[in-house]
Amino acid sequence: MSESIKHECGIALIRLLKPLSYYQEKYGTSLYGLNKLYLLMEKQHNRGQDGAGIATIKFDVAPGNRYISRHRAMGSSAVSEIFEYVQKKFADIPADLLQDAEWLKENISFTGEVLMGHLRYGTHGKNSIENCHPFLRQNNWMSRNLVIAGNFNMTNVDELLEQLYELGQHPKEKADTVTVLEKIGHFLDDENQKLFDEFKKQGYSNMEISHLIADNLDVAKILRRSAKTWDGGYTIEGIFGHGDAFVMRDPAGIRPAYYYIDDEVVVVTSERPAIQTAFNVPFDSVKEIKPGHALIIKKSGAITEEQFREPLVQKSCSFERIYFSRGSDAAIYRERKQLGRLLCPQILKSVNNDLKNTVFSFIPNTAEVAFYGMVEGLHKYIKQLQKDTLLKRADKISDEELEEMLNLAPRVEKIAIKDAKLRTFITQDADRQDMVSHVYDTTYGLVKAGTDNLVVIDDSIVRGTTLKQSILKILDRLGPKKVIIVSSAPQIRYPDCYGIDMSRMGEFVAFEAAIKLLKETGREHIIWETYEKCKASLDMDRNDVENYIKAIYAPFTDEEISAKITQIISPKGIKAEVQVIYQTLDNLHTACPSHLGDWYFSGDYPTPGGNRVVNRAFMNWVEGKNQRAYV
């Protein structure tokens, strides 16, 4: 994506199923869990560069001794800083004690059986150490302690806060992380109290009851009660102080969650390849947590996958496949190639099938796999063309024509290279824009000036500003007759509210194009009619609210909006003809059949809260409020 947007966080959870001494004996280190946690987090570094955090819990620690450890750090190097901090705790330990698993557990922090990691991308607002996960809810009762971290956004934080007020709580902050922590915490407390009262009636002592509660806590019941009214996309990992752990996934499967189990470990992450790499296991050994289900690992080692909410129609985030997740996942790699392959008919039409005078490239590197798919599609087209031509003209084709036909191939080149980040320290706007235009450098001498078409594929186009201010100007210097910018994703028309930093209508060049078209065609009244419907919906039950913003796009075809986008992003003075081509929704679903979450393209939100958010975002745009449409 030539314009980077912040997005989903990343999670990692490890539950060691054997004593620490087992890993010392088999792998030569009692720090097996910590080493694996570091690997899982580094292999998901793409998912969060604003901050990170880890937490560990030790089993069966004597009263008065610390059993929960946590450390968090800010910035893009947070993962390294955290593990450097942890490593220092082992730096001066004698070699014999470093191999003594029981001594390490008794004396050194972070040597626990349950380990949690989190990588943070702040989608809005504050970005401080207090906003980094994991979050703690502490209590002197071991089984009432709670540690959580997650990849989530809730759309109905106001409603959830109101419920906490009704329970008698007074949350310290208006944020979905706090509401989730306190909601689970409340029902954890409630379950603890009920079990305490039951065992007390049976005559057990308080010390005995503590162990009985830990053994008998119904984790699924706590999660069912906690998540009953949540509206959003989420994968949330949690640990109770005594050692029960869980990872829960939203009912529509919006956010990803993968797990692997063997007789030594249970592992959960946001991306499959992290597990494959860290534990050297094949693709098929890594499973997905089902939507509306939680993977629950009791302290006893019992592992279940239990339903806590009725699953909805699965709408897993398609942006994970197009851009966010690493392409090292075999399935994602195939899907990205298919996205590129499916664009070929539109591209060939745009260049009038003139492959001889067309150069193909990609910007940025994240579009490389889609580019390979596009090139494969072009080769397939050429093979069919050669077959048809030779079969039809075998008796009269000249040697020269035959040679030319057999040598026909896509002209594939590396046209643009992202240069080192340039500091735009000059204060004048004109000078700053000139500096921005040099973010990318180019390879000269590959394009025949005035003759060649230049096709450049991107994985998606959000705002179009980088294209206008930088890329198109650079490409125009090469002198192409025509520049075709191809997006492997459809037009982004609607805000996300489930974890991606796309929450304001004015950020989308497709929305800007539709508004311009409404005004140019005398349909400006649709803007105000839509606004009134959005206002009226504020008093409606959220389950009855529709996405009224679809009316903004309804009068126009995809091609009309693409043509207007082309006008918007074309810089003044550009000599080449410019065209923007987008993936179709049908092709997206063909390429990614298991990830049909496309609300940012289609406006079809998987939860009722999404419709309320998009309407609020439109109202904010009309009212000139530069803020996101959910808390």
Content-based structural category: alpha+beta
CATH class of the largest domain: Alpha Beta
Low-confidence stretches: 424-429
The biggest sheet, with number of strands, parallel, antiparallel or mixed sense and barrel status, is: 7 strands, antiparallel
Average pLDDT reading = 91
CATH superfamily of the largest domain: Aminohydrolase, N-terminal nucleophile (Ntn) domain
What oligomeric state do these chains adopt? Answer: single chain
Tally of alpha and pi helices: 24
Description:
With 631 residues, this protein is α+β, with helices and mostly antiparallel strands. The chain folds into two domains: 10-314, Aminohydrolase, N-terminal nucleophile (Ntn) domain (Glutamine Phosphoribosylpyrophosphate, subunit 1, domain 1); 320-622, Rossmann fold. It is built from 24 helices and 20 strands. It has a seven-stranded antiparallel β-sheet, with helices on one face. The protein has a six-stranded antiparallel β-sheet with strand order 5-6-7-8-12-13. A five-stranded parallel β-sheet has the order 15-14-18-19-20, with helices on both faces. α12 (330-342) packs antiparallel against α22 and α19 (525-537) packs across α24. The model is unreliable at 424-429 (pLDDT under 50).
